[in-house]
Amino acid sequence: MKVLKFGGTSVGSVDSIKTVIEILENNLANGEQVAVVFSAMGGVTNRLIEIGKMAAAGNAEYIEFLKVVEERHFAVVRGMINVKNQSGTFAAVRGLFNELGDILRGVSWIKELSERTLDLIMSFGERLSTLVITEILKSKGISAEFCDARNIIHTNATYGMGDVDFEVTNKQILEYFAKTNALQCVTGFIASTADGVTTTLGRGGSDYTASIIAAAVDASVIEIWTDVDGMMTADPRKVANAFTIPSISYAEAMELSHFGAKVIYPPSLQPAFAKNITLKVLNTFNTDFIGTFVQKTANKKDYAITGISSIDEIALVNIQGSGMIGVAGISGRLFTALSLNDISVILISQASSEHSICFSIDPKNAQKAREVLEKEFSHEITLGYIDGISIEKSLSIIAIVGEGMKKSTGVSGKLFSVLGKNGINVVATAQGSSELNISVVISKSDLSKALNSIHGVFFQSETRSLNLFIVGVGLIGGTLLEQVKNQTTYLREEKLLNLNIAGLSNTKKMLLDPDGIGSEQWRERVNEEGVKTSLPAFVQRMIELNLPNSVFVDCTSDKDIVQYYNMLLDASISVVTPNKVANSGSYAEYISLQRTALKRGVKFLYETNVGAGLPIINTIQGLMASGDKFLKIEAILSGTLSFIFNSFGPGVRFVDVVKEAKAKGFTEPDPRDDLSGADVARKILILAREVGVPLESSDVRVAQLLPENCLAAATVEDFFQELIISDDYFAKLQSDAEANGEKLRYIATLENGKAFVELRTVDAQHPFYTLSGSDNIISFTTERYKDRPLVIKGPGAGAEVTASGVFADIMSISSYLG
Ligand SMILES: NC(=O)C1=CN([C@@H]2O[C@H](COP(=O)(O)OP(=O)(O)OC[C@H]3O[C@@H](n4cnc5c(N)ncnc54)[C@H](O)[C@@H]3O)[C@@H](O)[C@H]2O)C=CC1
Ligand SMILES: N[C@@H](CC=O)C(=O)O
Ligand code: NA
């Protein structure tokens, strides 16, 4: 025999009942006997409870509410049974509603609603749905019979959650099914006492009915038909990427039952599990889907774990003291006291030092737990053997579950590592020696981030996601977004990396969308949906969103923005930037950013601070890490100045070359920063710091290349005017150099702890002579590269090369995330 069970949504509407009929017809076609258990129509049980309470409160409106429930059942009859045959069913349904109406009237008279009466009122939900569907089946010519489970399942008189008398029940079920071959339509959830008083089976009640029957008759299978695709790897409301688990063991299903309760409530399936009956969880609304098989032993898994479950809100109680060490009986007394007071313990952890025990409970029991324990241990507390009871709230538990972790290494490593990388603090942890479940207690505010990042490493290890928050969509930011757009498919398909643009801001508008702004229509979306830009609000929202693998990308030259870097890094958000302001501010700030990133295990990356995309910072960091010592750095670090000196000559105005550099995207947003030497000065300052020389910006000596009048210009426009006026000055610089067969080069040097930048002329022998375009060149003399320096050369400014350097930094974070 086969046992099927349909939940409330499956029997909730005419359309879904049509599917139920089809499923039943298909099953009957196989010839195997079928029992089918029905829940009440979706929402009806809750409605009946409400109606019962209204009646008890003397609120006559319950009558109207009851009419609505009645009409729902009538509507199904009208929708499913031919007009000619409806009357019998209508009469039967009306009969049940009359009976229920009488009971409710009684409740409203005596103004009392006992658990026993409530069970009786609730029983009408299943009795009605099952009656209606039985009649529908019969009207379709199917040999179906209504089976009132109260006649076969007996419980004690614990109302609300009757204790099943299996001896009697199993016997009655066997006798009942031995007598019939018809399709048995059984009322779920309800039972009765030996003397015929209606009871209910508590949580997961209809599943329990199915399970009790299946176990009694040794059914071949139980099919639980519900409204989702089976048991999922995580709660899909919290983890968008959760997917159906095809095969799961009983034990795993039990462990996952916290959120799995929505789908099945495994404890209610225990009788079937005990008989080794396979359970299938199937979707009435997606009948072709394979669903989840629950069996004693699950099929081999593709993943190290089977699923992730969580409890949103718990309180953690800690009891500690020197008097607990080596003293037997403390934990016995502790848990006895809790159990005598009906406080259920969710998780327990005690370190081998025996100095403390912590356990988690439902927060609504927290105060009671404190009182109970303070009373139990009052003597020890007075004597100072126990320090007292501390309770922490606003915590959540996440458990990873799976038989696959048994005796396999690396699972807990992976769990703790992903939590660490995302800056999620683990408050407590527990793993039983069954190795089926590792539980961690974390702050509730980290729950969503933790679930998603854990799900990511265990189930989507092939596809990793980075959440990008980009501020500044000018030349570099805009080009970066273009590059991201062009690479999205490649990265997803070839590198299994999903770049999610979760936030964007220009100076006017900002938009944050954790689901992704998209790299195609970002401009339109920011314009249309964006709100007025506010950097503090942007940063605050990012921190609140608390998305895993978040990266803040600062593509501005803003001075104020850098004050947020520390805060972001501290919130475990990596920072990537071409903006040089932070690293060229005070040395204390530079160091503090490095330290915060290190402390939080996130990245602060700024390769494009010097030489745009050229691998300069990375090279230095590699050499420093491997113990090389820098003796000298000599470099051309301005793409703009390089371009100018390579393009300026007879027949060209200096100002036009500067304007061309700006048009080509080489200059700073304000080109005076390039021509004043300020940009080069801050670059050599950053390099000095990277090689371990703790300079301040005032330590860098800058020899001006501009005449006074240009330096004094108040605006960029004025500046260009002054350049025109000074054209002869620049022409002479250039022609003097050329006359000597030399070239003008603006060179930065770091030697003996001193940094300076100056305009020099170099002859054809000098390695810096043969530069073209916007080339930068950096020559490192180190202990290892002493005889011949290490030289890096190439375009050191411009949109494409800079944006790709920023992109490469972002990519390096993704590989670090593993
Ligand atoms: N252009 C280049 O070759 C290189 C540039 N860089 C650096 O890249 C950064 C960006 O340079 P570009 O893109 O060329 O400049 P840009 O002026 O074209 O872009 C900067 C953008 O940031 C916006 N912005 C400024 N403050 C903002 C704020 N608080 N909130 C939102 N948006 C803000 C501006 O409106 C502008 O659209 C600068 O720090 C620059 O030093 C670094 C290496 C090379
Ligand atoms: N304006 C800068 C851009 C790179 O940092 C330059 O010209 O080098
Ligand atoms: Na670089």
Automatic annotation (TrEMBL):
Cofactor(s) the record lists: a metal cation
InterPro entries reported in the protein's UniProt record: AceGlu_kinase-like_sf, ACT-like_dom_sf, ACT_Aspartokinase, ACT_dom, AK-HD, Asp/Glu/Uridylate_kinase, Asp/hSer_DH_NAD-bd, Asp_kinase
Keyword Transit peptide: no
One MF annotation (Gene Ontology) recorded for this entry: homoserine dehydrogenase activity
ACT domain sequence ranges: 319-388, 400-473
KW Amino-acid biosynthesis (keyword) present: yes
Coiled coil: none
Enzyme Commission code(s) on record: 1.1.1.3, 2.7.2.4
Catalysed transformations (reactions): L-aspartate + ATP = 4-phospho-L-aspartate + ADP; L-homoserine + NADP(+) = L-aspartate 4-semialdehyde + NADPH + H(+); L-homoserine + NAD(+) = L-aspartate 4-semialdehyde + NADH + H(+)
Cited function: Bifunctional aspartate kinase and homoserine dehydrogenase that catalyzes the first and the third steps toward the synthesis of lysine, methionine and threonine from aspartate.
Oligomer status and interactors: Homotetramer.
Record-stated family: In the N-terminal section; belongs to the aspartokinase family. In the C-terminal section; belongs to the homoserine dehydrogenase family.
The name this protein goes by in its record: Bifunctional aspartate kinase/homoserine dehydrogenase I
